[in-house]
Amino acid sequence: MNTFKRTRAAAVAAAAAAVITAAVPVVHADAGPAKSASTQAKPTVVLVHGAFADASGWEQTASQLRHQGFPVQAVSNPLRGLHYDSAYLTGLLKAVKGPKILVGHSYAGAVITNAATKIPDVKALVYVAAFAPDKGEALGGLLEQHHDPAVPALPQQTFQYTRPDGSTGTDVTLDPKKFTAAFAADVPARTARFMAAAQRPIAAEAFGEPAKNAAWKTIPSWALVAKQDKAIAPSLERFMAKRAGARTTEVNSSHAVMVSHPGTVTEIIKRAYRATR
């Protein structure tokens, strides 16, 4: 090979090497996996179910949130009483690193209201057809003070059991035959029947224990009012949302709004994220 050809071949090889080098990103030894800025910035959404329900009610909401890049944790609420459940959630939240958005349905609204005051990185509260009590208020008292004659009494059933210490506990469930009308009237019939069968009882004392904290006084909040709610009167939901200064959305839904309108619930959570990031 003459000098001209050797020089030309060397130039071609050098150019190819430059192209390959430019196409390969430089990775520093201390760099972790690449993440988009939107994924890094998004808080964990903590979904907390209420009475007569379980975490599976959040399935569609959780799926939609994950698709949007949100880390999600759907909590199994013990339903053993407001003070017990709030302490449990506080402990769980301390183990969830980074900023958080708390979402409570029904009774769980009271739980997140109590628990969030002890967690400094809670960015927002989202009340989904939920209680938002003030300090010193009990849920039973709120229901009595804001009774709506148009909303029939819940078809509650109770049973008693003996605790390990020998004392007697009382739990509350809803009559499975009346569950759909009272709780999930706009949910597909097959799903509503399973919800009735899978409902988790709540300790009777949960409705008599006064709230110890009111996190909505210091943390931005959003609320969804279910206009066809037969578990919590829509007028009471509006009262609590207005008092909390919550950005409020109303939807023509039963109490089980996260099952019948998961897209609306997801959108409200996203609004809370956009407003507080």
Q: How much helical structure, as a percent, in the residues?
A: 25-40%
Give the second-level CATH assignment, the architecture of the domain at 40-147 and 206-276. Answer: 3-Layer(aba) Sandwich
CATH topology type of the domain at 40-147 and 206-276: Rossmann fold
Can you identify the CATH class of the domain at 40-147 and 206-276?
Alpha Beta
How far do the termini sit from each other?
Answer: 65 Å
Q: Low-confidence parts lasting 5 or more residues at pLDDT below 50?
A: 1-39
Proportion of residues in β-strands: 15-25%
Q: List the secondary-structure elements in sequence, H or E.
A: HHEHEHEHEHEEHHEEHEHH
What is the count of DSSP helices, taking H or I runs of 4+ residues?
11
The CATH homologous superfamily name of the domain at 40-147 and 206-276 equals Alpha/Beta hydrolase fold, catalytic domain
Provide mean pLDDT, rounded.
89
State the total count of DSSP E strands.
Answer: 9
Task: Give the biggest beta sheet.
Answer: 6 strands, parallel
Radius of gyration: 25 Å
